[in-house]
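Human: I'm a chemist; would you kindly supply sequence and structure tokens for a protein?

Assistant:
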Amino acid sequence: MTQELPFELEKVPILDELLEEQERLFKQAQLRKRIMKIGLLVVNSILAVVTLFPLIYAVTMSLKTPGEIYTTEFQLLPAVPQFSNYVNAFQTAPLGRFILNSFIVAIAITIGQLLSGALAAFSFEFLNSRFKEVIFALVLATMMVPGEATIVSNYLQVAGWGWLDSYHVLIIPYLTSASTIFLLRQFYKSFPFTLYEAARIDGCSNIRFVFTILLPLSKPALGATAVNAFINAWNMYMWPLMVSGSDNYRTVQIGVSMMQSVDSQSIVLMFAGVVFCLLPSLIIFLVGQKALVKGLFSGSVKG
């Protein structure tokens, strides 16, 4: 009969202590993780309130009476919301026409930038040319030139052509964008060149390759550039202010600024118009934010 060793009797207590220590460390890790999540939630909530405060302030001001706006006491929320301010804003100025003009201009510019950007990026990435890198550098160099530096010369040019106060003067100068070309070319770098070679061997033309193969595979990048192009076109102010002279072609940004006058009621109506001006771009951003983020990072990693 074998004799058992004395230290074997201490195995069970030691195992229990190890399990208790493991459970204690696990609970501490879970507690730290929970505290970190709560801390990040608090920080993000504070940043969200700070970021959204101008929008919240505009909405609350649009629902106040003129007397509540000009009071010396700070009061964020209106005593009685005045939803009639939005109706009065549409009655005071043709906001409906201004919003329609902005939609026409923004959609046309977005489509134009997507088409021109896709074709230019395809040319720079897939077609062979001796000076294509130099030309691409010149295209990127235009991003460093501020729009205010060329706005006067552009105005004199379109005025000489008789384009003032029309849709095409609002749309044509912005049908292409260097940033769109750059983003799409960076995305196309993740495509294997053999894809283009195989399509050419099968008899596919360049235009057919772009519209039937390249664009369907570029949905993330196209979504990102479309959101960016629409928001930039919707928020244009200086160029429409200079080239539009009648309500038939004024955009909503210009129309809202025209509602401001010396009387107190116009301030309330202007805030109501600002809210209407912000809604389309805000909705487009909320709907397309996933495509915007995905498109901006889709070409950053090659696999």
Summary: DSSP finds 14 helices and no strands in the chain. Residues 6-62 form one domain.
